[in-house]
Amino acid sequence: MGFRYILGGTQSKFNASLEAVYRSYLSDFEADNSWRLMLNLDYAIVKNQKITFSFGKNYDGTTTKDGNLVAALGTVFGFGNKR
Known about the structure:
The protein is mainly β. It contains no helices and five strands. It has strands at residues 2-7, 14-23, 34-46, 49-57, 69-77. A five-stranded antiparallel sheet has the order 1-2-3-4-5, with no helix packed on it. A hairpin with a 6-residue loop joins strand 1 (2-7) and strand 2.
């Protein structure tokens, strides 16, 4: 079960979203219930280039060894026609 809230439009330079996901298993033998919370920000530098930032709590230890904090900074370059 989860939700996502997006602030910004398709043509805006700045967009933000907040998403949360909760995982629950039918039996307690498989794994503990866990959740994820993520804040995503992106800013359009020019038409086909964006800088993105993600920050949040990942599911309990699924992708990291010593904790469950996720942070990423990246750029997105588009090729082809400007839209």
